[in-house]
Design a protein that fits this description.
This protein has about 325 residues and is of the alpha/beta class. It is about 40% helix and about 15% strand. It binds flavin mononucleotide.
Length: about 325
């Protein structure tokens, strides 16, 4: 039986960002935050041989694997893969509005077929040791329609799932890019509050527009959990405060040279298996808002060109030694 996991603070799935390397950094900074992989298409997960740089789970639990797809057999196979990789949860993406994803019949366009989504979620439930969840929007198109959202949730919950992550804005499927779809449709947190009142036994995690830890704190008093994306994309180091603020741990994590050593020890065996940029990019945000950070960053970029990992580790170490108190 899956032990009870607290999803009070979650890092959103982000393609190109929540890589295994980034997740490893997140886990160094916070032991409790609930993590997500990037989205992976079901067919890629099943058929491609080069998925490790997306799906590897090096004890990064608690963690969910997010998939995009709408074919029952494929989804079931993906749930088995996620279970074998020791993920705690498999999550169905019903929120991505991109044209490519719509072409593959997954993502936000699935909100238009609630029965199909219910059946997808049912197919994914392979055993009690891996939770099944959904990440969706509050609707489709320009207008708010609570009834539409409520009917969608009511139907998909018949699959038996207990966890719903809601990006609290509509998805606009035509004329808007995925980036526009994260900014232009207005947020509506009230829908998430209201749906929770109707389904009190379900965990609803609020996502969208939570851009400071303070805001996350306030919202977590009202909601079962909150999920943040771009806040962490811009500055993963703010995760060091999460265990103390959200999980009542006695002290917050202190960034030190050990942080860098632990991170490099993780990526060293992976050198050559992925690009130097993907291996190191999670650490680059360490310079965020720190005086002279730019100088170090330029130095880092110059050494990335030479693939000089030893030198790179030294530069990060000297930065942290000099500036650890200033890292946000
Ligand atoms: C670069 C980037 C990639 C994203 N990739 C995914 C993804 O793979 N799956 C998904 O469900 N959402 C994805 N999203 C959306 C986020 O999970 C989240 O719903 C959105 O950014 C709103 O949260 P925020 O305001 O805290 O950033 C992505 C967002 C960004 C910025």
């Amino acid at each position: 039986m899956n032990k009870i996991i607290d999803r009070k603070f979650c890092v959103a799935p982000m393609m190109g960002y929540t890589t295994p390397y980034a997740r490893n950094l997140y886990r160094i900074l916070s032991k409790k935050t609930f993590l997500f992989s990037e989205m992976i298409a079901t067919k890629t997960l099943i058929h491609s041989k080069n998925t490790q740089s997306i799906i590897a789970n090096d004890n990064q639990n608690p963690i969910a694997l997010q998939v995009g797809g709408s074919e029952y057999d494929d989804l079931q196979k993906c749930a088995k893969i996620a279970y074998e990789l020791n993920y705690n949860e498999i999550n169905l993406n019903v929120g991505c509005p991109s044209k490519a994803v719509q072409k593959g019949s997954f993502g936000a366009c699935l909100m238009q077929d609630k029965t199909l989504v219910k059946n997808c979620l049912s197919a994914m439930q392979i055993n009690k040791n891996i939770e099944v969840s959904i990440k969706c929007r509050i609707g489709i198109g320009k207008n708010f329609n609570y009834n539409y959202f409520e009917e969608f949730i009511d139907e998909i919950l018949k699959s038996g799932i207990k966890i719903v992550y809601v990006h609290a804005r509509n998805a606009i499927l035509n004329g808007f890019s995925p980036k526009d779809n994260r900014n232009i449709p207005p947020l509506n947190y009230d829908f998430v509050k209201k749906i929770k009142e109707q389904f009190p036994h379900i965990t609803f995690v609020l996502n969208g527009g939570i851009d400071t830890i303070e805001k996350a704190m306030d919202l977590s008093k009202i909601h079962d959990g909150i999920m943040v994306g771009r806040l962490i994309q811009n500055n993963p180091f703010c995760l060091r405060k999460v265990d103390s603020i959200f999980y009542n741990d006695t002290s917050s994590y202190k960034i030190s040279e050990d942080t860098i050593i632990e991170y490099f020890n993780y990526i060293k065996p992976k050198i050559g298996t992925d690009s130097i940029y993907r291996l190191l990019s999670p650490l680059l945000n360490i310079f965020f808002g720190v005086a002279d950070g730019k100088k170090f960053k330029i130095h880092i970029h110059a050494n990335m060109k030479n693939n000089n990992f030893e030198k790179l580790e030294k530069i990060f170490l000297s930065f942290v030694k000099e500036k650890s108190l200033l890292i946000h």
